[in-house]
Design a protein that fits this description.
- By secondary structure, the protein is mostly helical.
- It has four domains: 5-122, no CATH class; 130-221, no CATH class; 227-267, no CATH class; 269-332, no CATH class.
- The chain has helices spanning 5-29, 35-50, 61-67, 84-92, 97-120, 126-130, 137-140, 155-158, 164-173, 179-183, 191-200, 211-221, 228-240, 250-265, 277-281, 309-312, 320-324; strands spanning 274-276, 315-317.
- The longest helix has 25 residues, at 5-29.
- It is extended.
- The relative contact order is 0.07.
- It comes from Hypothenemus hampei.
Length: 332
């Protein structure tokens, strides 16, 4: 197929486009992706594709969204610039003018269709997702770059009006804490590390002074950046509840999925799983209480209620299994 000059040149043009598409796609498939930054990357991809389709005066992102399908804003396929790789390959390839024009038209139609599909998949409330980057520690801790409180995303959706003033004060006080000095540079490396620390940060009196603000941000950060995470959970579910285990209940399945997903996200192996004394105490005959379908293992009464708190916090590392035997990882 590549012996055909037109097909060869078509793939030469296609290569950098697929490279950019793949990089952006991988960003959205990560477990802990900065959502605001990911949508910036998607915006850059759309602008990159628009450079090949839309006239220069329409290359502002907002104008691309409005006029990408307008013929008056489209570049003449004959004047489209396909990059240095295409120019070099064109010199080496013998192709007549009619075949070249047909190739340019094909490529122009492909890019227009690709651009259309990407724009149609953008969320309806794109401006809110773009402002999620305001919650990253690099921005919200910056005196110059931080957003005003009223410009933060989804305030009307997730915060009660009676708490707006309280959370605004917490947001304004955020830059008064020397987070880097207290918790180290790693703590402000990403939103997913920073905001749990903010949630548990206490003042001299032992009060969590950023509790409301942190809960609001963590709720937003829990948004899935794509359906990749959901599809991954379905894959784990299908590998867990098989035909041989088709009688597994919803509660047991949900518990196993939570454990497997957590260990997968933290890149931990089941052979290094650590359980507490409290967990071990809950492994008793009450686990098999089938009379109550809503029985919750995590809140069930322990058979040994006389253990002191020190025993509850004692951790048992089940590491000897992995050390002495060649045990495969069962996490997934």
């Amino acid at each position: 197929m590549l012996q055909n000059p037109s097909n060869y040149l078509y793939f030469v043009i296609l290569k950098p486009i697929l490279y950019e598409m793949n990089n952006t796609n991988l960003n959205f498939q990560k477990d802990f992706v900065e959502i605001g930054q990911a949508f910036d990357d998607l915006q850059n991809l759309i602008t990159f594709l628009a450079q090949k389709v839309v006239k220069e005066e329409f290359l502002i992102f907002e104008l691309v969204l409005k006029h990408f399908d307008n013929e008056l804003s489209n570049v003449n396929p004959k004047k489209t610039i396909f990059g240095i790789d295409f120019q070099l390959a064109l010199v080496e390839t013998k192709i007549d003018e009619n075949a070249l024009l047909d190739l340019q038209l094909r490529m122009s139609r492909y890019k227009s269709r690709l651009l259309t599909d990407l724009i149609q998949r953008l969320p309806d409330r794109l401006k809110y997702f773009k402002t999620i980057k305001a919650l990253s520690p690099q921005i919200c801790l910056s005196q110059c770059a931080r957003y005003k409180f009223e410009h933060l995303p989804f305030l009307d959706a997730f915060i009660e009006k009676t708490k707006l003033g309280i959370i605004e004060n917490q947001y304004n006080s955020l830059i008064d804490v020397r987070w880097k000095d207290i918790y180290g540079e790693e703590a402000i490396a990403s939103s997913y590390k920073f905001w749990p620390i903010v949630l548990h940060h206490k003042n001299a009196g032992g009060t969590q002074i950023f509790n409301d603000l942190a809960n609001y941000v963590i709720l937003i950060l829990s948004f899935p950046s794509s359906n990749a995470v959901v599809e991954r959970v379905f894959s784990i579910m299908n590998a867990t509840k098989t035909k041989l285990r088709n009688k597994m209940g919803i509660q047991m399945l949900n518990s196993i999925l939570l454990i497997k997903s957590k260990m997968f996200a933290e890149k931990k192996c089941c052979t290094r799983f650590k359980c507490t004394k409290k967990m071990i105490n809950k492994f008793n005959n009450s686990m098999y209480n089938l009379q109550n379908e809503n029985y919750d293992l995590m809140t069930a009464s322990s058979s040994n209620n006389n253990n002191n708190s020190d025993d509850d916090d004692l951790s048992f590392a089940i590491e000897i299994v992995g050390d002495e035997f060649d045990v495969p990882c069962l996490t997934l």
